[in-house]
Amino acid sequence: MNLMKLHFIQNGYFLLLTFATGLFYFCFYLVALVFSLSLSFTVIGVPLVIHVLSTTTTFIQFERTQTKIYTDITTPPYNKEVTKNVSVWNQAKLELTDRRNWRAVFLLMQKIVIGLASLVSLVILYVAPIAFLCAPLVYRFIDMNVFFIQVDTFAKSIFIMAIGAMLTVISFKLLDVLAKIFGGYTSSMIQKLNR
What we know:
Elements: H1 2-38, H2 45-71, H3 88-97, H4 99-109, H5 111-133, H6 135-138, E1 144-146, E2 149-151, H7 154-193
């Protein structure tokens, strides 16, 4: 039973981390690329673009690690060739013309959609059952309307609590499935990048 609870909490952490990283990737690349590309006519803009595009490898390795830890999905390593001993301008040309960099940026920014879906899943599968289970304790103090039912009596609050218990059981199973689906995005992302 304790292992099930730990797995339930671990899936919740993974979904919350998926939302946080998806939001971070989207904001980071949107701001960093717009800023660095707008400064590309100056001397500082080109090195900024190079450094922004070189972060994709680090972020993809982080995604691999987090997916392995939380969902036990093993993904192939992201193999990106690093060229050394070239001038800054040749490095910039290589980074800017490498389609894998731009594809990685797009796939990492696209994770915002999965992150929003995981946030909605967290609210529905974690917060709603807890709120329903607490209905007999709080129905006197707050106005509760659940499924078009005005919860104003103890009997109705017990009924809502029973719905909360059923939702909790369903959440245990559904969260595991959702974590595997959202974790599978990392695996498919790396497979697309390694082609």
